Prior knowledge:
This protein has four domains: 3-37 and 216-444, no CATH class; 65-204, Rossmann fold; 476-746, Rossmann fold, CATH 3.40.50; 751-830, 2-Layer Sandwich (Alpha-Beta Plaits), CATH 3.30.70.1710. The protein contains 29 helices and 22 strands. Strands 14-15-16-11-17-18 form a six-stranded mixed sheet, with helices on both faces. A four-stranded mixed sheet has the order 3-2-4-5. β12 and β13 form a beta hairpin. It is elongated.
Amino acid sequence: MGFWGATFILTKKNVLLSVRDYTTLIVALSASFFAMLVLYFSQISIDNGEGFAPELLDNPNPEAHGIGLIPRCVPFETADCLTFAYVPADDENVEQWIDSVSIRNSIPRNETMAFASGKELNEYLFDNPNRTQAAYIFDNDSLEQINGGNVSFIVQYNETLQFEFPLDETDFHTQVVVPSMVHQMNLELMRYTLRRTVDISLSASVFPHPNIISLDNSNNGGLDAFGLHGDFLTFATYFLSLIFFLYRIISEKERGLRDALKLAGQLQSQHFISWCLPYFVFNTILTLLLIAFGHAFRFKYFTVSSFFVYFLTFFIFSLSLIGWTMLVASLLKKSTSVSGVAFALFTFGYIIGSAGSIVYSIDENGEPRVSESVFFLRQLFAVFPTTMFVKAIYDGNILALQGIKISFSEANSYISVFPMRECWVWMAGSGGVALALSIYFDNVISTGHGVPLKPHYFLQSSYWGLGKKKQPTFGNELESRGDESEQSDEGDRQGQFSQSYDPDSEDADVRYEREAILRGQRDSAALVIKNISKKFRKLTAVDNVSFSVRKDTAFALLGSNGAGKSTLFNMLVTVLSPSAGDAFIYGLSVREDPAAVRKLLGVCPQFDLFWEKLTGAEHIELFAALKGLSKKEWENEIVDRLEDVDLLDVANVLAGTYSGGMQRRLSVALSLTGDPKIVLLDECTSGADPHVRQDLWRAIERAKKGRVVFLITHSIAEAQQIAGRNQIGIMAKGKLRVLGNALHLKTKFGVGYRLSVILHESSRVEFLTNALSRTCPGSLLISSENGDKGETIAKYGLPRHATESEVLQSVQLLEDQKEELHISDYSINSSTLGEVFTSITSLSEDAHEDETLETKKRCCF
């Protein structure tokens, strides 16, 4: 199967995962309808004069509103406030007028304050901002001529517009405070001048006018709901799809599923294409739905404007979001952070987009409203696609409200500052740059899975596939020479057995294997590990390990937790890079040729990696495609692999419904898919019940033919079952301690035979010990302890070099002197691999306990 065939299956996988999460899919798609529905109801509100800017609506008969009492102030940043101040102080008439106005308007006198002069008032206002609502300032000259009946005054107020989110700006002072203060003081002055009570009712209304629309109207972008809130709601709709896909991409990376695909042969380009293509289709559907619902609800932006104008605005914006989504995905590691990051991006995007209306705005003469010193902000803001999206929608809506249908050719000439075509270019460009950056960061940022590339990787010819490529070596002739060498070495090692294991010196078998590798005698082996090491700061997880594995064999690496076996496993599958040394798989280096090495691997990690919403058959199909199998071979591969692990009956059942044992079997089946040259299994039967374990062992045994099986385990039974007749290595404290087949290890490091004797009298133990030492020289009393019924249980070790006749003589001794020694029963057993493992690991840990504790003190917190 070629590049595009595998890419098609990967894309199919992502489409299936999206479609099968139907609840989220429906929400994301239906958001387009609800966004337009909200705008429709908002439009009804505006048409009824209840919008956020009713003063701009067509109003031939404006309604008059009465001017009433002076509203009292409301404290904002202080504990108290002044409803109004007045100037001057200590004027008898002014004090009388202020008293009367305060009483009539129910304003406490402590909410008023007198000042001697306007200068003194301004100083107070400057020192106490947001505390005084307004002020009366009386003209001194008119106060001196008050008897003439002509008194003038000024109402001073802060004319800065107040902002109330989400109702935009308000001019409360101009429309309410100032008219009421003028009216109330005029009533008092007329009462004072006329010497009688005066009651005058005043009303105010706007001048009759048609719809007020202009290109420089930056307050609300037009008089319809789409102009007011269309950019916000359409942006939010697209952002839902962003979150939908971003979560899936991050979740796949976080769970290690992407690395599983990478090990199966997925290229980075296939990863990006397989995610961007469904996202592109989804956003295209979303764009068409938004346009369809926009037409259905009869918004002028859609009914008047050219189709290509608004389609390109929406479509290019959705394309740019794909690049930005992939950029964020390359930076995030945890799916739990998606919602928080998405909310921050949404908030920032909308704020920066709304702020752009100021930066790009022009007046009625076409002149910019901002100074040239901040023109650079236009390019800076344009980097973010939301800014250009809001700008393009704003312009298109204003033109549509004026009945102007702008064509594609006119989209670059209707205005001088960032017309729509320029907005499209900026959106497409920013999305493209974001996509390029996402590819770069995806390569160089470590995610905890896999080895990141160097920051300058794109300057290396090897990245672009240039230069000579090293090919794996599968030649039968070379492999046969390797077999002969191995057989010769086994002969050379005879007689090198030591009497006991010394953890402070390298075992003879391990040393011999290392020397053979360094001399090149193992170069033709399928797997060659040469002095490989891995350090994490001060902690050495794998320390100078060397061994080789031949084709058609299995190798089991035993070790307790923390021995370094999983770290070695991760280096072999190219997830970790060695700190020193190297490993070669059919001649390919895991350091220099990781991509080529991965093509040869079948990997079953310690923890199951699968997609809950894919069936077992779809998993096999996916991995078969990545392994290069043709479409015709998929069906046979699905049947063979699932039949191997007894999952054929549930081939079309979602993997998320499988039991733990079934999921483990699926993981093993995936590791065998596509005829890998080397199968690496990490605790492959962990958590499986005995029946499942036996089935998996048989499947792995069948898989040894024509390939290498490399097994990481802490199960003695599993190691002996799969690799007992080939090779077993035992690791402890990061080092390879012993090496050989099961029989060899038991013979070399076991105690030979164990003899247990039950005696009625403990005094006979010494006599028995002396007798056994004569019949079988080297026999050793291991322990002597009392049983539950008062008997004595003596345990002896017969040396591994004991001959068969010596062992038989020892048994005959027990039979002949059974009554004399008061023996009630006895048993004899050979040493087990488990005993060898326990002995090797415990001795290694004891020998390095002080070193380990010191290392932990230095490296751990």
